[in-house]
Amino acid sequence: MSLCRNGPNVGASIALALLLLLTALFASPALAQAEVEREAAAAVGAVTPDTWRQVRSGEVGPNFRDTRADSTYNLINASGESWRQLRNRWVSPFGLIAVGGMAGVILLFYLIIGRKDLSEPRTGRKLLRWPLVVRSIHWTVASLFIVLALTGLNLLYGKFVFRSLFGDAFWASMISGSKLLHNYLGPLFGILLVVLLVRVLKHNWLDRTDLAWFKQGGGLVGKGHPDAGFANGGEKLWFWLLATAGLLVVASGLVMDFPNYGQSRDTMQWANIIHAVGALGLTAVALGHIYIGTIGSEGSLEGMTTGYVDETWAKEHHNLWYEEVKDQAVPEDQLTGDKTVPGDSSETASRPG
């Protein structure tokens, strides 16, 4: 009888004990964190806005320095924030305007003007324009350029598109693969680009005919097609862009690819900006080069795929070169019938044409 009377009191006591136990369990981490914060406050002291300003300017002692070996940078690096602002507020919008704007202009040009067809029928006689060795290097460099351009655009803009579409897991794999390809293929692209530039340098020295070519907009202004040798003014301009801005992009990429040669953090930041601006600009111009060399102009792609161009194409686009090599034209059926193509060698490429 007494057990029944005392039952509620026993249950209440057990419930109270459990409540106290749970309170102790949850309170322990909070008390431990509070203890850590008290120790940190005692060891470091109050961190005021003035303290952070001192850290930013580098006026405080070594306790506020970066822990990297031989580093002279502050814990808070002002140049890093400047780089971030420059990249996000200027470089990224510049890239969208340059690449997207060029793509839009090319699309409008194609829809309004259309492909530039040959004004006269083809003769069926072919002239060697590019030997096999040059074509092989060109297509290798072009393929690497496209891969580097796509992976670079992904590194800069991909997170705004693919991350939201496919989620973090897919995005992480995608960005990791892009970075790996970009870092390893970049040096190979640089080496082959130099080889290609040296190989075709002799055709790309500027002369007086190029001024007339630019005045006529490559044939878009006025009547008739402007005079041109082996390379016209537009092709020479693309060559020198690659020889200047292109090599600068390669050099800045190597600075970031191999950070173990004493580069400072500021050097790496400037290399990143130079690399991004140059690469985005070249990508925009490359869209025009690709358009003109493929669907924009009849017969242009044949020269870099088969090595040969029709006489009509040569006369219309490179008349001065045609006059130099017209006696070397061969019938098309002769080329398709023989596996050994006459003249398709480095020897022929060394001629003026």
TrEMBL record:
<keyword id="KW-0349">Heme</keyword>
<protein>
    <submittedName>
        <fullName>Formate dehydrogenase subunit gamma</fullName>
        <ecNumber>1.17.1.9</ecNumber>
    </submittedName>
</protein>
<keyword id="KW-1003">Cell membrane</keyword>
<feature type="signal peptide">
    <location>
        <begin position="1"/>
        <end position="32"/>
    </location>
</feature>
<dbReference type="InterPro" id="IPR016174">
    <property type="entry name" value="Di-haem_cyt_TM"/>
</dbReference>
<keyword id="KW-0408">Iron</keyword>
<feature type="transmembrane region" description="Helical">
    <location>
        <begin position="184"/>
        <end position="201"/>
    </location>
</feature>
<dbReference type="Pfam" id="PF01292">
    <property type="entry name" value="Ni_hydr_CYTB"/>
</dbReference>
<dbReference type="InterPro" id="IPR051817">
    <property type="entry name" value="FDH_cytochrome_b556_subunit"/>
</dbReference>
<keyword id="KW-0560">Oxidoreductase</keyword>
<dbReference type="InterPro" id="IPR006471">
    <property type="entry name" value="Formate_DH_gsu"/>
</dbReference>
<feature type="compositionally biased region" description="Polar residues">
    <location>
        <begin position="343"/>
        <end position="353"/>
    </location>
</feature>
<feature type="transmembrane region" description="Helical">
    <location>
        <begin position="270"/>
        <end position="292"/>
    </location>
</feature>
<keyword id="KW-0732">Signal</keyword>
<dbReference type="GO" id="GO:0008863">
    <property type="term" value="F:formate dehydrogenase (NAD+) activity"/>
</dbReference>
<feature type="transmembrane region" description="Helical">
    <location>
        <begin position="132"/>
        <end position="157"/>
    </location>
</feature>
<keyword id="KW-0812">Transmembrane</keyword>
<feature type="transmembrane region" description="Helical">
    <location>
        <begin position="237"/>
        <end position="258"/>
    </location>
</feature>
<keyword id="KW-0472">Membrane</keyword>
<dbReference type="InterPro" id="IPR011577">
    <property type="entry name" value="Cyt_b561_bac/Ni-Hgenase"/>
</dbReference>
<keyword id="KW-0249">Electron transport</keyword>
<feature type="domain" description="Cytochrome b561 bacterial/Ni-hydrogenase">
    <location>
        <begin position="129"/>
        <end position="307"/>
    </location>
</feature>
<comment type="similarity">
    <text>Belongs to the formate dehydrogenase gamma subunit family.</text>
</comment>
<keyword id="KW-0813">Transport</keyword>
<keyword id="KW-0479">Metal-binding</keyword>
<keyword id="KW-1133">Transmembrane helix</keyword>
<feature type="region of interest" description="Disordered">
    <location>
        <begin position="328"/>
        <end position="353"/>
    </location>
</feature>
<feature type="transmembrane region" description="Helical">
    <location>
        <begin position="90"/>
        <end position="112"/>
    </location>
</feature>
